[in-house]
Predict the 3D structure of the following.
Amino acid sequence: MTPFVQVGVKMRILVTGGAGFIGSHLIDRLMAQGHEVLCLDNFYTGTKRNIIQWLDNPNFELIRHDVTEPIRLEVDQVYHLACPASPVHYQFNPVKTIKTNVMGTLYMLGLAKRVGARFLLASTSEVYGDPDVHPQPESYRGNVNTIGPRACYDEGKRVAETLAFEYYREHKVDIRVARIFNTYGPRMLENDGRVVSNFIVQALQGKPLTVFGDGSQTRSFCYVSDLVEGLMRLMNGDYIGPVNLGNPGEYTILQLAEKIQTAINPDAELIYQPLPEDDPKQRQPDITLAKNYLNWQPTIPLDQGLAMTIEDFKSRHQE
Ligand code: NAD
Ligand code: UDP
């Protein structure tokens, strides 16, 4: 697939959560295209290290700000990614997670409305909860436990989607909504807490890999460059969504553990720990809409993406 390239239109683009994992990869692409980029972040799970390569670039501006407070900026596009994505981090302060999703999205939509910017929401496959339809199409309305430990994130994102669509209907804000499935790649934090980084860090440190439950639950893992390509196609196309962005290749957590064992240390032990409450049993995106409307599908297979991710973690270990 030829990467999406925009010819000749220089825009001012706000990326909230831009110092985080996905946001910083997105900024790399936007900067390479010659745009002016405003990176807004409160550094809860993001780091300056992720964007250090741009700090001296006149097209780049870093704004330390929390999206739960209003801000006035003049931009053409808003990629709204600010929100912790790993269960460990979004459950640390659940009320803050709700505020980030609800008030943060409200203020960013307000900003887009005031300046007439196009607004893309980074929503999630978690809006489907523990799905009883498989694979999940966008028309599936989900199975979220409203009072469970994942609800601060899942329901927060569901309200964020609702807000986006109400700003679209009532205020004619030009919205795009992406439902992102499990994404992995270089720059995930060592303490991120999500499964790919946990297993890689554990294997590199000679520790046992912590498999939650019996490891039969499934996830579908998308490499970050594929995901960023999908976000940019959505932002710059006509289809507003919601649209699933993810890699349909589905694996059990045990299969993932075995792949990482094979790649790093075949003797690494597996230990089994309790399955967290409400952990979805299976997850796989139906990406028919993304294929049809965005002409997008992932190109990096799991083995290749894992190899690149492992190299990144190794290089950080050596620093
Ligand atoms: P991440 O935790 O690396 O990045 C989130 C960024 O948002 C961090 O830089 C963090 O400091 C910042 N942030 C958090 N709360 C903020 C606040 N109140 N104000 C300002 N900045 C704040 O996570 P990520 O994996 O890069 O995820 C980015 C977005 O994509 C999130 O909205 C997440 O919900 C969504 N998403 C990610 C995945 C995935 O698998 N990575 C899956 C589905 C959805
Ligand atoms: N998981 C695991 N060991 C870990 C971290 C996660 O077995 O050290 C499991 C977790 O229970 C879930 C899957 O891996 O079934 C994916 O978890 P992650 O937190 O990466 O993402 P999410 O559950 O939000 O999809």
